[in-house]
Amino acid sequence: MHNINYIRENPISFDNSMNERGEKACSSQILKIDEDKRNTQTILQSLLATKNQLSNQIGLLKSQNKDFSKIRSKVEKIKDEITVLKELEKIKEDELFVFLSRLPNIASDSTPHGLVEKDNVLYREWGEKPNFSFNPKRHFEIGENLNLMNFDLASKLSGSRFVVLKGMLAKLERAISQYMLDKHTSENGYTEMNVPFLVKDDVLFGTGQLPKFSEDLFEVGESHWLIPTAEVPLTNLVREQILQENNLPIRFTSCTPCFRSEAGAAGKDTRGMLRQHQFSKVELVSIIQPEYSKKELERMLESAESILKDLNIHYRIMTLCAGDMGFSANKTYDIEVWLPGEQTYREISSCSNCGDFQSRRMNTRYKKNDKNTYVHTLNGSGLAVGRTLIAILENYQTEDGNVTIPSVLQKYLNNQLTLI
Length: 420
What we know:
Structural class: alpha+beta
Number of helices: 13
Low-confidence stretches: none
Number of strands: 16
Oligomer: single chain
Strand content: 15-25%
Distance between the termini: 51 Å
Largest sheet: 8 strands, mixed
CATH superfamily of the largest domain: Bira Bifunctional Protein, Domain 2
CATH architecture of the largest domain: 2-Layer Sandwich
Order of helices and strands: HHHHEHEHEHEEHEEHEEEHEEEHEEEHH
Mean pLDDT: 96
Number of domains: 2
CATH class of the largest domain: Alpha Beta
Helix content: 40-55%
Radius of gyration: 27 Å
């Protein structure tokens, strides 16, 4: 949610920022609604003051046993006017709220300019692409050939964009999530949380999924939604709170299933596990003072990177341009892992600083020097479990169709060295 004071003082900068996010300039519309609201409040305050003065006069006349009927008539008329103005004030307040709630966050100064993926900028990369003496297969070819990955069976159960994993492949996916949680809690300083997978409207509003992106979600009944990411419940753990500064930063992690309709992905990545309606992800969330959030983003990025370094899988990091970022972010890094079967990079994590955008929507502040200030929130994947599984299958495949298990995961699998 945007700070209306900023828009009042910087309308041109705000319009430029919205243009960079692919939105139309709209400060004039916002400020017109805001002006109408404030004018209404000014008149309302004046009428309330007049009503109080007249009420005092009535009290005085009563004490003197004098006629106050004319003044009482004026008061009744003013009361009617006040009722109408309060309704108008609420209408304008709601109109402003709805308008602002659908606008994305302002990009940070260090976010690259641009509107589409090709405008993203390489930040850094790590490791080397593997060299194979054979043509590497794609993950679904490996899984299906081993009879450990079944899309047809999943389709009978749930339709497209689902998968059934079997035996050692199911165990490997579980081992990946266990390893990630152990790493983030024992080395990277995050506290593991077990959170609900169903949340209410205001929780999704707080992190920015509602109202604009309802088509990307699965609604359950009349009052709940399946979470698209653990970012939603984790960040909202501090909603409507005033935190103590000495308790910051707060760092949470959780492994949950994630549910997404993939409404805008018709015909895209229909083969394999890359784009599923249901997948597991280990999420990282930080709640921190504003002056430390830029540094915290780098720390979160390094925490996510540490998983791929331990797995010894080549990746690159892209700084997303303003137009390619998520709705709530002011700066985002995407970690893209190399998939030799596809001969391309694929996103495996996004780490974002949201500034005070989400905390304003959640009304989350902290007390500093007897003043309540909005916290900054950050979130990142640490990592997407299914895509990490894909990366392992393609990077650790062998010529005979087997897959070597990375050394850091072997202890979770009774020290087994290969899938079969």
